[in-house]
């Protein structure tokens, strides 16, 4: 009789232990699911963060102040109303390939003219990509490089990402830089575009619109 009581007591304790483990696993799984859901909500709630929406738009961030290379050979119009992608205006850039340095470009910076020597930049954490629309005047133009981040100095950008050798067509097309694994906690160089004589021996005219982080 005593042996039977001990057996049933042992069986009961074993059952309780199994149930406790199962409950713990369920709670852990539910906690994990909740954390995953929170991350997904955070990503899905990210509002588009514009570098350029329209000329003088209140949604615009960064200033096209960081001119580089053969700056005298680069024409820049951010209020072009010719064949825009959306809204009322787009950006028109004309590169003349006659300069000595054989390349030219512009950095959109925060604050203006910030080359990493002053505090600035935006925390764009939550964005997973930068997108922009572009086309060429004739359809054979090449953007040598488009980049985000990459400014060094005492207040350096937290990361850098880019696309190179972008061959344009004569129609608007959307381009994307993947930022899903980038550290966007401090970005002063919000957008950078570069043209070179190597890629455009006779120069080029390019249109840009709807530059934004998503």
Task: Give your account of this protein's structure.
- 20% of the residues lie in helices and 37% in strands.
- Strands 1, 3, 4, 6, 9 and 11 form a six-stranded antiparallel β-sheet that branches. A five-stranded antiparallel β-sheet has the order 2-5-10-7-8, with no helix packed on it.
- The chain is α+β, with helices and mostly antiparallel strands.
- The radius of gyration is 27 Å and the shape is globular.
- It has one helix spanning 2-44; strands at residues 49-52, 63-69, 74-80, 90-95, 103-109, 129-136, 142-149, 160-167, 173-178, 189-196, 204-213.
- The chain has one helix and eleven strands, in the order αβββββββββββ.
- Mean pLDDT is 86; it is low at 1-42.
- It folds into two domains: 1-45; 49-213, Galactose-binding domain-like (Jelly Rolls).
- The N and C termini lie far apart (72 Å).
In DSSP terms, counting alpha (H) and pi (I) runs of 4 or more, how many helices?
Answer: 1
Low-confidence stretches: 1-42
Total count of domains: 2
Top-tier CATH class of the largest domain: Mainly Beta
Estimate what percentage of residues fall within beta strands: 35-45%
How far the N terminus sits from the C terminus, by CA atoms, comes to 72 Å
Instruction: Write down the secondary-structure element order.
Output: HEEEEEEEEEEE
- Estimated radius of gyration: 27 Å
The helical percent reads 10-25%
Q: Give the overall shape, derived from the CA principal axes.
A: globular
Largest sheet: 6 strands, antiparallel
Secondary structure category: alpha+beta
Query: If you average the pLDDT, what whole number results?
Result: 86
The second-level CATH architecture of the largest domain is Sandwich
Using the coordinates shown, work out and report the CATH topology of the largest domain.
Jelly Rolls
The H-level CATH homologous superfamily of the largest domain, spelled out, is Galactose-binding domain-like
Beta strands, count: 11
